[in-house]
Each structure stands twice: as C-alpha cells, then as structure tokens.
Amino acid sequence: MTDVRQRRDPSMRPPLVPLATLIGRELHGDKSEKPTVKCGHHAFAKRGEDYFLVKPDCLRIPGNPSSSFSVFAIFDGHNGVSAAVFTKEHLLDNVMSAIPPGLGREEWLQALPQALVAGFVRTDIDFQRKGETSGTTVTLVVVDGWTVTVASVGDSRCILDTQGGVVSLLTVDHRLEENAEERERVTASGGEVGRLNLSGGQEVGPLRCWPGGLCLSRSIGDTDVGEFIVPIPHVKQVKLSRAGGRLIIASDGIWDALSSEMAAKACRGIPAELAAKLVVKEALRKSGLKDDTTCVIVDIVPPPPDPLILPLSPKKHQNKFTSLLFGRKSQNTAGKHTNKLSSVGVVEELFEEGSAILEERLGKNFPLKANSGPFRCAICQVDQTPNEGLSATVGSYFSPTSKPQEGPYLCVECRRKKDAMEGKRRSRTTVSSNDSVIFQEILLSIR
Ligand SMILES: [Zn+2]
C-alpha cells in the first residue's frame, strides 16, 4: 500500500525526461530504445562438421556500450572441418575490417552489405592459400537494434518468424538441384552439372557440379572443386517492427526435415534456449539423425514500456522526433536499397542482393574510397601503390572505354580471384585432390 500511495503522490514522481534526452537516446542508441536480444542454440552431431558462432556483445566503437550489436552464424562443413573452423575464426574480423572507421550507426548499417561481400571473398582467398580441400556453408547474421542483416552461401537457412505468425526466408538456397540460375552460372563459368553416375549408368542423388561432386553452388573453401563455386553471399537486410521477431538459423539437417513453418511452429512461445532444443528434437523425430543438425535461435524482444517517458508535446517537437525515428535513409546507390514493404508485412526490407558478379556487389561507391584513398584493395584491404592494383572494370574482358578508376579497386591477387570466379582464368594451380576421399564423401552425402 505504501508503494501505491507514493506513486500517486505527485511530489514523489520521478522527474520527467526532457525531449532533448529522448532524442539523444535515439541518436546515440540508448539501450532503452533498443530491443533485447536473447539467444539459444542446440546441436546434434553425426559427422561433427557443423560449427556455430554466438557473439551477443560486439561493439562498433570500442569502449562504447551503446554501439553494441550481435552476431550469430552457422558453418556447415563438408569434406573435412578446416574450412568451417577457419571461417568461424576469421570471417567476422574480415567483414568488420572492410567497414571504414568512424561511421555513424546508419552509415555503418548501409556499408555492411558490401563489407560482408568483401569479408566472405577475403576469407575464401585466405583459406585457399592454405591449400586444404574442405569447404563450408556460412550463414552470418548481424543484429543491430531492429535491423537484421543476413549473409549466406550454401544452404544453412535463416528464417524470420514475426508477431502474427508470418514466417519468411531471409536466405536463398545455393543448391544446384533447386536453383536454376546458379546451375546456369556454374555451367557458364566452366563447371559441369549432373548427377552421380553409378556403374551401369544409373544416376543417383541430387545435382552436383563436376569436378568435385559438390551439391552446393556457393561456399567458402572447396579449393579442389573449382572457382565457379563462389564465396559471394546473398545478402538481405530488414528492419523489424517494434513488435520484434524470432530468427531461426539452422544447418540443412533441420531444413531437410522441417519446412520453415514447421520449425517456427515447433517452438513458438518458448524461450530461445529451449526453443532451439525443440527444433532439433522435432527434426530428429521427423527424419532421424541423418546429418549434423545445428540450430541457433535469436529473439529480438521489444524493451518494456518506460514509465518515465510521457507522451510527447508540443506537436512541432513531436514531428521532429518522429522524423528522427522514422526518417528516410539516404539511398546507397551502389546497392539496391529498396525501402519497400516486403511480403512479411510489417517488416521493412532495406536491402537484398544475391548476384555472383563481384563488381555488381562492390559498387564504385564502396565507402572505403572516401576514407582510405583510392588504392586500398576493396577485398583484402591491403594498400597498393598506384601501379600495383587494377580497378575491377579495367582490362581486356571489359569495355575498352572503361575509365581506369571505375569500379572497386582490387589488388592483383583479388583481381585474379575475381576473374577465376567468372571462369576467365584459374586463380591458382589446382590442389591435387584425393579422388577416393571425394568419392567417399559423395557416398556419405547421398540420401
Ligand atoms: Zn586484394
């Protein structure tokens, strides 16, 4: 009773929060304006080639807790674990080092899709230098406030379950069997696509690319398969409504057993840690343990209403505040920032691009140039003297009218990688592959 009387006594009310403080909270990303991120994970290993990453407390600005963001990822390795382990250790650093320092939050989020492309390609180049033959899918999710950015190669899906039970897919499956566009690209770049031929001419299993026999069309690693298996991720960036939502990130062990709707439904209303267990359990119940099965669940939960914040007035201030909260983003001409409402209704779609053509992904307005001069390689971030590197659009493969400084600037090695991915040349001498190991791997993965 004492508490109630105290709340009713005006002299006991806590002080009102001035408008300037409220605006400041939004501008500086005060935690009270940000959703809470809760996560859970669960895995069941068969081959031990799935890895995952959960980093809920990353900082854009070192030492500044209001610049926090979270990162979650799944790496489903094949033909060994070294690519999955290497990518888990280095990918995030490579992405972050491709974002120029000193950007504000909105600029940072706009730079992220291109930095993800640079970081994925750099990690692939660095891994291939090791001369090992394994590969991995990657699905990397960056959650900053209400904005979710997903980059993926391979078939480890990320789905979004929003309030009201609308489930949407934030990734694209890079599986040759299901993706005609990728089949065309691989064939055009020098790969062959077909099923495994058993003795007697019987074709079995899903479509694969040859040499190598991989069912995926994009991955990190796979040095022995061919450069047409590219590490260039599909990237999608969405902004959730203030109702929040749940992300389910999982390896194909889940998605071969459950549809997106089934996975979302299996754990709705259950806290994240237990939800991840339930999704894995449901997949195992449906299909048994056929593959590594890993699930990471991320809940983006609205903050509790702040009793200290009163309705805003007068009206002209309110308009100002509203425009700060919901103001249009400046368009990034290099990417396809759409700002349109997507099929998920209340979720705002900010960006989506899945092209495997590098210069379409590292547009000429790549923000690196503004801060670091024209001669830093857009992929590996190594500074070049003017004569060392080449602009991605220069050379005999492109229009002779291209100007020398158009397109992202690439060092010689990254340029070589780009040409190799497009089937124009090999980036390196092929690592001699152990065919019996590959054949074993193929037999293991036939379902
Ligand atoms: Zn480079």
Automatic annotation (TrEMBL):
Record flagged with keyword Thylakoid: no
Domain PPM-type phosphatase: 31-300
Molecular function as annotated in GO: metal ion binding; protein serine/threonine phosphatase activity
Obligatory cofactor(s): Mn(2+); Mg(2+)
Pfam families for this protein: PP2C
CDD domains assigned to the protein according to its UniProt record, in alphabetical order: PP2Cc
Family matches, as SUPFAM superfamilies: PP2C-like (SSF81606)
Entry's EC annotation: 3.1.3.16
Listed PROSITE patterns: PPM_2
Keywords for this protein: Hydrolase, Magnesium, Manganese, Metal-binding, Protein phosphatase
Matches recorded under Gene3D superfamilies: PPM-type phosphatase domain
Manganese keyword on record: yes
Reactions mediated catalytically: O-phospho-L-seryl-[protein] + H2O = L-seryl-[protein] + phosphate; O-phospho-L-threonyl-[protein] + H2O = L-threonyl-[protein] + phosphate
SMART domains in the cross-refs: PP2C_SIG, PP2Cc
Family listed: Belongs to the PP2C family.
Protein name: protein-serine/threonine phosphatase
Protein source organism: Elaeis guineensis var. tenera (Oil palm)
Record gene name: LOC105057417
